[in-house]
Structure formats: C-alpha cells, structure tokens
Amino acid sequence: MNLWLFIGRLNPPHIWHTWIIRKALSENDKVLVLLWTPLIPDDNNPFDFNFRKKLILKVFSENNLNILELKDHSSDLVWIKNIIQIIESNYKEFNNITFYAWDFENDSAYNVIKEFEAEFNKYNIEYVLRSRKDSFINYEWKKHEISATNVRNALNDWNLELVEKFCDKEIFEELLKNS
C-alpha cells in the first residue's frame, strides 16, 4: 500500500497546495499532510495548526486524508525521526511512501528528507517533484507567484480580489471570516 506524504507550512493553504492534495487523493490509498509548525510563531506563520487544518478540511473530507501537526525542531535529524514516528504510529501497514515536493528547488522538507533518506530504511520512498517556476496567476496586468507569502501579503494589504485568486473559494471565505 502506498502512503502519499506532503509536508508544508501551508500558512495559509493556496491553490497549488489544494491541487497537490486533490491529485494525491485521486492516486493513493492514504494521504498524509504534515503541517509544519514553527517553534515560535511569527509573521511568516500567523495561523496555528488547528486553523490551517480547518481551512484544508473546508475543501476536503477526511475519508482518506489525514492532517497531523509536525513541530519544528532545531535538529534536522530529530525532525526526521519525528516524521518517521508519526508514520510508524499511524501507518504501520504502509511500506511505500510517495513524498511530494512542490517547490523542490527551495523545499527545505525535501532537502532534509534527501539528506537523511537512510533513516527511512523501512520504506521505499518515491519522489514527485514539481517546480514552482511557472506557478503564477495574472492579476491587474501582472504575474503574481503563487505562494503563501503572497497570500499573507495580499491579506495584510486587504487586497481581497488577489487573495480570492490565490485560494479555493472555501478557504477564501474562511480567511475573510477570520481577518
């Protein structure tokens, strides 16, 4: 059986995040999204785990999707061991993991997993890598890179038309309620 793994901050989730999850749900037995939570909340991570999970569940049901929290750690090796512990605790029957990296050129989760891949010795790991280079939306005659940073900036600027373009309708509506 195949477990599909996506690790990200998703702070907040945008249309590429939900595209990835939708694709994973259509192709795999189980999908695990680990929402990476920083040690100390900051302006780049304004939404807590529960709110980000709620946003994702506005778009998806929990039938074969599991969303769990992954706390950050100053040690990459400890962080990796925490991921393995989560998998072993929740998915004993799985030995194949497909790890999806959306921005593999800059994806710190992907880079750390590759560095410590030997720690996943019980698993066959496959990687699905996508480049972020061509991930743009057009708005007001400009190309805007699809990123959580740009969603947060549009929210801070109260540019709701741009936020709406970056997010699924259900996420956009929930963000509006909480802004």
Produce the secondary structure layout.
Layout: E1 2-8, H1 15-27, E2 30-37, H2 49-59, E3 65-71, H3 76-90, E4 96-101, H4 108-115, E5 124-129, E6 136-139, E7 142-145, H5 148-156, H6 160-166, H7 169-177
Parallel strand pairs: 1-2, 1-4, 2-3, 4-5
Antiparallel strand pairs: 6-7
- CATH fold-level topology: Rossmann fold
Task: Indicate the proportion of strand residues.
Answer: 15-25%
Quaternary state of this entry equals: single chain
Classify the secondary structure makeup into a structural class: alpha/beta
In total, the number of strands is 7
Q: What is the topology, as strand order, of the major beta sheet?
A: 3-2-1-4-5
End-to-end Cα distance, whole Å, is 41 Å
CATH class: Alpha Beta
Query: How many structural domains are formed by the residues?
Result: 1
Order of helices and strands: EHEHEHEHEEEHHH
- Please tell me the CATH architecture by its name: 3-Layer(aba) Sandwich
Average predicted confidence as pLDDT: 90
